[in-house]
Amino acid sequence: MTLMSLFRPLTPAELANWTLRIYLRYWPRWMALALLAVIPLALVNLGITAAVPQPELDPAALEALLNSMQDNPLPGGAVLPNNLLEQVVNSSVATLEQAVLSLMAQLIIAGVIAGGAGAVMAAAAYNGAEPDLGQALRTGLLERGRLLLRGHLLVGGLLMVMVVASLLGMLVCIGLIGMGITVYLYVGWVPLLAPALALEDGGYPLLVRRAWRFGKLRIWLLFGAVIALLALRYGVAIPIGLLAGALIPDPALAALIVAVASEALVLPLGVIFFTVVFLDTRARLDGRVPPGQPAEESGLAMVEPFLSAADMPNLVGVAMASLGLMVAAYFLVLMLASLAVPGL
Fold it and tell me: What is the DSSP code string of 186-203?
């Protein structure tokens, strides 16, 4: 039995409470599900790294640049070695390719495997039933797998186009606007995509639109949750990394174990939280699509614009907040680099 008000949405504290209760009560099942998604994702990321190797910068060229900067500290006074610019460009392109492919793999693998089956498990627990991992996997992968894959490919493809267009726009100083809009699309769309595709009947274009509609209505809650989960993932990785570094001599193997362990621990929290948000939002703001009845025939398929004037304040707010966080993260990385490398 769910403890909720019929007149207001659950508060962030109530949503967090539900998430922790479901996570801790069925922790072994969540770990098993997370590993089923995280291990293939780690292997795919290793394949991406091998297929798109990142060229190393020439140490001699870097040393020459640092010596030139010491002799000419004013901006523009340093002499850039002839081959260093080409090396930096090649390294940046390789890093970009790896990041885009990894993000797409994360969206599809985690969304389809953990998101689909996890939404079924979280919904069962939220409604007072005993979640069955085997049944959730059958529902998420066999019954809803194709629907989940199509929906995530559609949304993921659109987001990747936005990322590439934004990066190209950096050349004419408009790319930051595109990146801000991309963050708004990601936050308002991706978190509730798997619950919508796994828990409701209908064609995937309509269910994708429903996930977007619900996500826009809870955009600031979802934005805060995404940031909190990212921070938690990095926070969990620090002690795991220290332990793995002390016990495992191979740095590559230690890094792989850290990535798998930290992702496995945090991924279920996001799956549960976003499923509860979806269920809570649907209960108050829209009816559910009856099982076995296509959404197009249920009277719930509301035709509305993808973006309207009412969405603009939230879009601008989320874009500005995300850009501010990106800038803060950039300067934090520079500060940590200057502390780690004496003389910079």
Answer: HHHHSTTHHHHHHHS-S-
The upper half-sphere exposure of residue 20, i.e. CA atoms within 13 Å in the direction of its Cβ, equals 6
Identify which of 235, 239, 240 has the alpha carbon closest to the alpha carbon of residue 260: 240
Residues 6+ apart with CB under 8 A from 3: none
Phi, psi of 21 (to 5 degrees): -60, -45
pTM of the model: 0.84
Comparing C-alpha atoms, which of 343, 296, 263 is closest to residue 37?
A: 263
What is the per-residue pLDDT across 278-288, written as a single tens digit (0 to 9) for each?
999 988 776 45
Residue 207 is encoded by which pair of tokens? 């269910």
Q: Is the dihedral of CA 290, 291, 293, 297 positive or negative?
A: positive
Full DSSP string of 62-116: HHHHHHHHHH--STT-SPPPTTHHHHHHHHHHHHHHHHHHHHHHIIIIIIIIIIH
